[in-house]
Write a structure and sequence with these properties.
Helix content: 25-40%
Strand content: 5-15%
Largest sheet: 10 strands, mixed
Shape: globular
CATH topology of the largest domain: Alkaline Phosphatase, subunit A
Length: about 500
Amino acid sequence: MRTNFKITTTQILTINKSIVITVFLFIFQWNTLVIAQSKKPNIILMMADDMGYGDTGFNGHPIVKTPNMDALVKKGMLLNHFYAGNSVCSPTRATFLTGRHHDRMGVYVANKGHLPKQEITLAKMLKSKGYTTGHFGKWHLGTLSKTESSKGASRKPALNFAPPWLRNYDASFVTESAVTTWNPGIGSRAVNNPFYENGVALKKGDKSLMGGAAKVVVDRVVPFIENAAKKEIPFLSVVWFHAPHKDVQAGPEYLKMYEGHGEAAHFYGCITELDEQVGRIVEALKKTNQYENTMIFFCSDNGPEGRKPAGRIVGTTNGLRGRKRSLYEGGVRVPAFAVWPGVIKENTASNAVLSTLDYLPTIQSIVNYNMPDSRPIDGQNILPILTEKQQHRDKSVVFRYSGGITTLVKGNYKLVYPLKELYDVFKDREEKNNLASLHPDLVAAMEIELLQKFKSIQKSQAGIDYNDQNFHPVDDWKPLIKDVAKIDPQKGSALKKKSNSKKKKK
């Protein structure tokens, strides 16, 4: 049976019109992407302190109000499986700025070591590309004075003096370590821990240091953005908020928002105060016509403080196992998102494993920076993931806490070494089902990869990457622990060696 199909002139014109529109839209979208990437984008990298995976509205917290971040997430991509570089502060910050494992710099744990001047950082890289650079908020990668430290003489302030104004930042407004989240210029946290503005310590009780800690910081971020826009210079602004790290305190207006929640109102309130300042940064970008050409990242430096939520410390992991100082998911997996108008699509989400290690290699690719040597970079360029051209990362991610427990995340799996634990972190968020006995070959392969990685890391810690005869590590190398008996079962860190000296009898 033969069927005759007749197509009218009108139908032909309609079909051709549809094809033309489709092609036009494709070309328009492609040109938009090319134009956005051809200009030097401004870069804002924000990070909270001790904010758990579940401590934001966009990650489902039933109480905390974060309307500004919730709205901003919708303008870009929600990062569902984003890792801080470690389960504590300083190591994560080292990975954030360098794209390298923190042990390569000897930053094994918080308040130990410092950021070596020989490291190639985001600031050093971007200054070479014509950017103006600013760092605002917490520093925690060395002391800010040669004579004093918030951690006392044991911090060795002269040896670990490594302030941002000597690490390629044109502008800086920082504290060495944590401050109270309300009126940060006063209180016990302010002792030997002043705010330094471009290298000059502000006096304790300075009026500009009163109010919310996030506002105090963003009061300096906004003028930096405005000045860069006025001069038509691309900028890098690293904003490391202090909240919700203890001492946790919220101002009266924020406590009023959370009446009926007892001491927890302080925790919720300081996060809302932080959120308002994120909104203020976005507003400044829009007022200066910089928003469309700015790439924004947000994350936290590790999981929530405390063994369990209590009092003013009520951070949540949203069901993930572990908290701050733990290398299980709740200690290292954090809330995160990325926004770049015209490049990263709105209302998107990624389940790919991403990390603070990825910031530098991603930005390196965007600005077309050529590394001057072959030093190992542990992160990877994740722009193909952010633009939905790639679904999964290529490189494994390695963690080590305080010279103790070590983990390696490869694909869906996490190896916990030397505990012989293997978890499918995509299917088993609570890390309850140890699969090691079911996949011995995978465990063996991951162990080999981990051991090889730390051979490279050890060489870096000794200074082999720097080609600088004047470099000397601050601390000795901490060998990888292969014996479970040498791991502190409570802390996950290396057990401290017992002294052989005997106390003299009276």
